[in-house]
Amino acid sequence: MTGFxxxxxxVMRKPVKSVLLFVTVFTISLLLLSGMSSGKAxxxxxxxxxxxxxxxxxxxENEADRHRRIDVLAGQLGHKEGSLGGYHQEKVTINGFxxxxxxxxxxxETLLVEDIETIAGTEGIADYNITTVTTAVxxxxxxxxxDEDVDQYSDLGGVSLVGNKDMSMDSNFxxxxxxxxxxxxxxxxxxxxxxxxxxxxxxNQLQIGSRIRFGKCxxxxxxxxxxxxxxxxxxxNQPIAPYxxxxxxxxxxxxxTDLDFPEKVDGKAGDPxxxxxxxxxxxxxxxxxxxxxxxxxxxxxxxx
Length: 304
What we know:
globular, 34% helix, three-stranded antiparallel β-sheet, 2 domains
């Protein structure tokens, strides 16, 4: 008696159990095949998503190198008052005791444009963005968002400006946490324009085309002010992490501007403070190769 004939006899003798067994084996096989197909689709989808989102490199100040540069400049100045390379030191007398006061300015702290452009010219870099340090300024003809239950005495009483060369590559928008609700982003090369939060727009009845003014923090109302046109209103999925403590830096009070606007309002036109630069890689599959090229590029930052 053949194996097939024996199997057929078993099926005829116990048809219900045989059918259940067949259905079970068929279902398991189908699930295995579906899982394999789904796995391939997921891998392909992840690859397409990675290509769509892109990959990039971030240039920002290295704190260890910053301290090294300060030590070098302080050593060059020695025990005398003076300034060198954006580093300054002077003697001060406090309660009869002589001490040294030291500080740095924007020229010392900023990323250098020439370095950024050198990296941007590296083969494999498709585009780049420059972002300013978060700059506290005074709102002139509008009110900011405040927590009524918090004592504002120690706060600057201002809002925050963040300038970008290309706003679409700002980390908040690149990550998808922030998105444009109305209007548009600031375009590269524009001057005196801004994008405000939906909360700030609602509180002040501001809309696309409105013009708002800013002044330097802690200065009186008669000081110099600068005006910017609202070209967009943004919304966030999660509050943007504050740069520092206080309502000046809270998520709703962050205003995105063109690259040059924050330094003008801060009274330092022509003396920018660039905090970071983002470089978009043309092909994510070349990430490691492009990264190696960038690390081998001859740049000044952080300054020698």
